[in-house]
Amino acid sequence: MPAGTRLPLGEALALGALHGPAELLPISSSGHIALIPWLLRWRYCELDPELRKSFEVALHAGTAAALLITLRDEVGEAVGDLTLRRIVNNCLSFAPPAIVGYTLERPIEQRLGTPGSIAIGLILGSVAMASADRSPQRRTVEDAGPADALWLGIAQACALIPGVSRNGATLAAARFREFGREDANRLSRHAALPVIAGATLLKGVRLSRRGLPGRVIAPFAAGALASFASTLGSTWLIRQVERDRSLAPYAVYRIGLAGVTLRRLRSEPRASK
Predict the structure, then answer these.
(1) What's the domain range around 41?
(2) Phi and psi at residue 108, to the nearest 5°
(3) What is the pLDDT of residues 70-100, one digit of tens each?
(4) What is the dihedral of CA 189, 195, 196, 197, to 10 degrees?
């Protein structure tokens, strides 16, 4: 079997199970999918980079499908009550990540997808979250306007840097704008769904054009199903996060993961001597 074209089924299932809760919580799903296999020395790290990208598309597809089911009431409400203001807000929150992602996705992945850069993204995101969460809780979802939507869009564009976290960045942006924690979570979800769905669709089209080696189809499908199931099973996490909870525990966890990563990086040169 050619090197770099084998993904063990167990690793695919584990990463799919990890992706759901990591996407729902402000801890960076992309950072975890990259760092956990690296820290545990899994075969996934030996997979061809293009196949790893394709596998991440499969995981996002599973998560996106589950989110559409889990949040169907909110999605139905948003679609059924579209106003000019909501359309403008949706466009403003979608445009920055769409433009940056379409034009700079490859350079970002190539230069900022290393364990060290992901650790830095985790730390920077943690600082932003902890700082933002000190803001007063004065505003609700109904107060959101074009300026707020644009800030959410800029936050999502920044979250294209691995380790930053789309959820964490949008929560930080909403809290900086003085939205209450529960309302910040709602705004974060509403801003993220179109981006997740759009990115999955675009990458899915590219994936269909490239095709997949037959040997990875089964683990890719297993990973997508595990991601779908773990997202559905983690629905209660959304409710837990929304109960006026501080972002500090997530910031501490992210810094801890970054610390483990940087310590491993420092030890590798000594281990190789």
Answers:
(1) 9-272
(2) -65, -45
(3) 888 777 776 667 778 888 988 999 899 889 9
(4) 110
Question: Does residue 2 belong to any structural domain of this protein?
Answer: no
Which residue in 35, 198, 42 sits closest to 105, CA to CA?
A: 198
C-alpha to C-alpha distances, 31 to 115, 119, 261, nearest whole angstrom? 8, 8, 11
Q: Which residue has the tokens 């020395």?
A: 41
Condensed to tens digits (0 to 9), the pLDDT of residues 113-154 reads: 899 999 999 999 999 999 999 999 999 999 999 999 999 999
4 occurs within a structural domain: no
Residue 3 lies in a domain: no
Residue 95 C-alpha from the chain's centroid: 17
Is 194 a domain residue? yes
CA–CA distance, 263 with 47 (Å, rounded to integer): 24
For the chain, state the CA radius of gyration. 18
